[in-house]
Amino acid sequence: MTTAYINKIATAVPDNDVHTAFLSFAFSQLGDNPRKLQAFQRMADRGGIDHRYSYFLPRTDLSNGALDHDGFYVRGQFPNTAARMRAFERLAPQLAIDAVEQLGLRADRSTITHLLITCCTGFSAPGLDLEIVERCGLHPSVERTMIGFMGCYAAMNALKLARHIVRSEPNARVLTVNLELCTLHLKETDDMEQILSFMIFADGCAASLISAEPTGIAMDRFHTVLAPDTSDLITWHIRESGFDMILSGMVPSIIHKALAIETDAILAGAKVPSIDLWAVHPGGRSVLDAVQHALRLGPSALNASRDVLRRFGNMSSATVMFVLKAMLQAEHKRASGCGMAFGPGLVAETMLFHTGN
After folding, report:
1. Which residues have CB under 8 Å from 200's CB, separation 6+?
2. Rounded distance, CA 100 to CA 105, Å?
3. Nearest-CA neighbor of 253 among 182, 185, 346?
4. Distances, alpha carbon 125 to alpha carbons 146, 237, 329, in Å
5. Does residue 332 register a pLDDT over 70?
6. Per-position DSSP letters for 158-198, written without gaps between them
7. HSE toward the beta carbon, residue 144, CA cutoff 13 A
8. 217-355, which class in CATH?
């Protein structure tokens, strides 16, 4: 059976580092409630994030109630869903183009046979797929598939589909794009489960090339873990004033429990110490801690994930690809790896892979 490889990964983020400004604005929404202020400060201090990026240029002075220079987010006047989707239509294509162009496809772009896109933060039609085909010079006959509204684990599903394509069509060359503009969906709220978006989420895009060419990361096996009776812990709904997320504080403990039970199935019977590389979606510091404790990993096992979290925050489906990019760029002899990402369900999508010959 043909083996599918992630040959290249490129990433892109907007120019504006918004982490400090977003935290300040979140604090301003909590009013003078000391309990909430202390809880948020504690979570921010322990969040493991130094930088996050957005298309919004933040204001340093929040006295007029505006978070950004364009006045998209103004206290008492947060935008409705239509305004957020107009912004997505305007901003998203360029970030996708930036990531794809960094792959350096050049003449190879004419050989792309399939285009897969994951996104849960914006929708339009004609959409990102046709924009990428036209602006990146792909052949008009390229087969296009949108993988929508699956949340943070969607990149794993795109890789899974790309593997199926390559295994059934060994000459296929699959371009995947994982694009999220999470900062389009900030909420004017003092609800702690919603205001967490000001603390961890960011914008970002990853593009990757998957083919049967034996270079890069070989994708060996995928496995899905669905934790029972957890459907209300991560939710993502389209409402009048944007997309509403609920991210329960119980998520890390459920991940810990599910991974401890399903380790053998995830690793296909292999032992944890036999895995050299861990590409774990950095949904937050507490999520990474839960994975590390559940699998009894060494203190440096999740360094790549923690570094992506520190430098970029949580970019939903794009994030785990940033982690895999770091592993693809590193000098490795043959090494075994496990990737995983988490999202609504509560679901863990996992992948076994190897690098080197």
Report:
1. 47, 49, 52, 283, 284, 313, 314
2. 8
3. 346
4. 11, 20, 35
5. no
6. HHHHHHHHHHHSTT--EEEEEEEEGGGG------HHHHTHH
7. 17
8. alpha beta
> CATH 3.40.47.10: which residues of the chain?
4-211, 217-355
Q: Which amino acid is at 264?
A: D
> How does pLDDT run across 97-153, given as a tens digit for each residue?
999 999 999 888 999 999 999 999 999 999 999 999 999 999 999 999 999 999 999
Size (the chain), residues: 357
CATH superfamily label, 4-211: Thiolase/Chalcone synthase (3.40.47.10)
CA distances from 147 to 120, 167, 269, 311, 349 (A): 8, 19, 30, 26, 14
Element (H, E) at 20: helix 19-29
Q: For residue 170, what are its two tokens?
A: 């060994």
Query: Residue 162 carries which side chain, given as an amino acid letter?
Result: A
Name the token pair of 86: 């107009």
